[in-house]
Amino acid sequence: MPIEYLGLDRINGPLVVLEGCRDAFYEEIVEFVVEGNKKKLGKIIELYEDKAIIQVFDTTDNMGLSNTHTRLTGHPMEIFLSPDILGRTLNGLGKPIDGLGPIVSDVKRNVNGLPLNPVRREYPRNFICTGISAIDGLMTLIRGQKLPIFSGNGLPHDQLAAQIVTQASLGGDSMENFGIVFAAMGVKHDDADFFRRTFEESGALGHVAMFLNMANDPVAERLITPKVALTAAEYLAFEHHMHILVILTDMTAFAEAMREVSSSKGEIPSRKGFPGYLYSELAMIYERAGIVEGIDGSVTQIPILTMPNDDITHPIPDLTGYITEGQIVLDRSLHGQAVYPPISVLPSLSRLMKDGIGEGYTREDHQDLANQLFSAYAKVGDARNLASVIGEDELSPIDKKYLEFGKEFEERYIGQGSEENRTVTETLDLGWELLAILPREELDRVDTKLLDRYYRKTGDKETYSKNPEDSRPPAATDSLMF
Fold this sequence. Notes:
- By secondary structure, the chain is α/β, with parallel strands linked by helices.
- Helices cover about 35% and strands about 25% of the residues.
- The termini are far apart.
- About 45% of the residues are buried.
- One of its GO terms (molecular function) is ATP binding.
- It comes from Anaerostipes caccae (strain DSM 14662 / CCUG 47493 / JCM 13470 / NCIMB 13811 / L1-92).
């Protein structure tokens, strides 16, 4: 039977101290009744003998040392779950805020999740199509992967996140169930309205469960929001066999909330004032992505974080890079050139890309084409540096070709409309079209058979072929190849 305590011993910001606790445990949910009618929730975050430090999921306004009743519930933070959460908008604690009533279900799950047996993990395979060429072609998102987006203040990461939500799919011919869990932490009301409006107007809201923690919501709620969202994702993926894409924005707000609470607790700070357990907290979130053996479902993560002062060595992106399998980096100079999405190709990568593309997944030429585009774009930087010293007119013909390729690549391949949804085939075909700017002998990262199949000459101009049959050599050569 739950025990109710009258009064508190100390209040410090979002933290309260209760002494004389019996049978309390770490992460236990606590209910407060203030002045006999105002109800609030909290969570035990530290225990010292009979003393409990409780983090309040609300403001501590009106809470006094003598006017508050405290009741230990005997269970950790739990939320009600149902497949009907798709299409709903909830707050950071998983409570509906869309006016459509509560989530009706007998299923409750602990938001802290259950440890996943590493032996039962399956290696991520197959891809998720975002409709964005720079991602699908060069840093492909694989099911079960965690692929963060490193952004900066003022860059269009919110717009990019909304576009991914509205366009993401398992591919045109997939019959598998797909859904999206979108969690926003510390967002302003106009940003929240932008997400709601974009999802509704695109028709994507029906397969999206949206969790919103506003900037004026309590800091403690911000810490629980990603865990609530991932609990919903795991329920849909592993109990209803869906492939779930989880987008978490902005993990910087989550980390800064952790720093604020840590400071209130009087803990010794580590790098940049963040607590020493920042790495383990981030890992507890990121490692909840994956595929479980024998279950036809997956959880894929795209955490978005803003790098303070565009510093990729800052503790938040630095630690995130250790845990995740690659990164997508947004570039401020490309944004200044009105290129959207301003994805910086060279520092971006997807470490699992090779295992979910190619024949049987996307197309046989995908890996070689991506390698060649990376290589060619790296040489564009060398040509631009040389042009800045000796002038563009003094460049060799091949360097001028690389400058032309770089301009077209940024404007047409990286750049695309915010509502433009490209298929993987369109992305690959566009890559061959851009490589046609360069002489064939420069394409040293592509297998000769793939060059013969997808690349041809028309007169004295080299171009690509969308139809593999049209690009095959004459019959005499054909017999030598096959």
